[in-house]
Amino acid sequence: MKKRAALLTAFLACAATALLIAWLTSRGVSSVPTAEASFGVIETRQFQARSRIILYDSELNELGDLPLDYATLGCDWNLSPVYDGTLYVIPQGYTTKRDEKTVLGVDLDDLSITRYSVDQINLYGVCADDDYVFTCSNLNNVSHISRVGRQTGDVTDIGETGVYIESLCLYGERLYAFASNSSLSSDVQGTSLSAALDESSSWISIYDRDLRLIDTVTTTKLGSGRFRPVAAGGMLFFANWEDASGEVPSTQLGVYHTDTGVLEPHDFGKPVLDALPWNGCVLLLFGDIHSESPTTAALYGPTTWEPLTEEHDLTCAVMQSCISGDTLYVVGAERELLSFDLKDSLSPLGRSTVSHIDGDFSYVSGMFAVPA
């Protein structure tokens, strides 16, 4: 009798657990222990609608994942940013169509999802603030910047013909659009521009939050391919993945001072892959996104740009990176997952591998820090 009662109790406990998980799932809430997460990785496939967001703790242990029925989730060259505890990521859709026309906002507390609709295909860049989600797209040599109201879903859109918008960065009350490859249109839906730039040019278009053009900053001498700009301490940092010739990686880091409008080029004599602000410093990753050679990294002071640490070999060709707390996390070209201690001259902390969603081909398309 006691054995039967124990079995009944165990059965009821399992049933209750299953019902709880089903209830959480129906509400779009995950049972993954998100409070323990330090960072996450986005894994996707191009030709099947099967992707996921994987969360990890600080020891590189996989905590669980959020499956998502989208193809090409995230844009591996562009950032999928986190703002106010929400990850913003673009599901582009099947690689031959890229027609999902959606931006996802993933709450990193409970992994619930908010969808923002944009009537443009081939979306790839995204950023957000309290009121809006901004995204960019390009089709048939026409680039668009779209603004979506987070509460209303209302969309405002501007287009530029003959321009390729590489990425967006939102800082303060300004939206920075990094663009290249062609002359600016003389009239962007009623917004006059003072001068046209030649086909080898690159520049930053600066807008207010109503998408009114405020200024244009020429960056041609630094290069182009500014896919991962970041801002901190009144400065906008951007690596240039191509030099002015468009043939080889640029060795220059661009620093734009948002308060004075001053643009500073800093040449490091080697390709700059990423710039990551940390604790009043800037961690520079040196490498070529197309190369299999190991990436190196060192901390710099943003005033003198003198190195604060020796250059450290990260032992892999870094594809994705983020800083969470005092730790650098990177994903390599072979799905290596590594961590380094920023407070101890980038000494290695751990090494693992990003697991596969299944036995077929998939790739890592993004990496992000989870706010504490």
Low-pLDDT segments: 1-28, 183-197
Strand content: over 45%
- Rounded radius of gyration (Å): 22 Å
CATH superfamily: YVTN repeat-like/Quinoprotein amine dehydrogenase
The number of helices is 1
Strand order within the widest beta sheet: 3-2-1-30
CATH topology: Methylamine Dehydrogenase, Chain H
> Judging from the principal axes of the Cα atoms, what is the shape?
globular
Structural category: mainly beta
> What is the makeup of the main sheet?
4 strands, antiparallel
Share of residues in helices? under 10%
Query: What is the CATH architecture term?
Result: 7 Propeller
Tell me the number of structural domains. 1
Distance between the termini: 50 Å
- Total strand segments: 30
CATH class: Mainly Beta
Average pLDDT works out at 89
Descriptive labels:
Methylamine Dehydrogenase, Chain H, mainly beta, 372 residues, four-stranded antiparallel sheet, disordered N terminus
Description:
The protein has one helix at residues 2-26; strands spanning 39-44, 51-56, 62-68, 82-83, 86-89, 102-107, 113-117, 123-128, 132-139, 142-149, 155-161, 164-171, 174-180, 187-188, 191-192, 202-208, 213-218, 230-232, 235-239, 252-257, 263-267, 272-278, 281-286, 296-300, 312-313, 318-324, 327-332, 336-341, 347-353, 363-369. The strands form 8 sheets. The protein has a 4-stranded antiparallel β-sheet with strand order 3-2-1-30, with no helix packed on it. A 4-stranded antiparallel β-sheet has the order 4-5-6-7, with no helix packed on it. Strands 8-9-10-11 form a 4-stranded antiparallel β-sheet, with no helix packed on it. 7% of the residues lie in helices and 45% in strands. Strand 2 and strand 3 form a beta hairpin. The radius of gyration is 22 Å and the shape is globular. The model is unreliable at 1-28 and 183-197 (pLDDT under 50). It has 372 residues and is mainly β. The chain has a single domain (32-369), classed as 7 Propeller (Methylamine Dehydrogenase, Chain H), CATH 2.130.10.10.
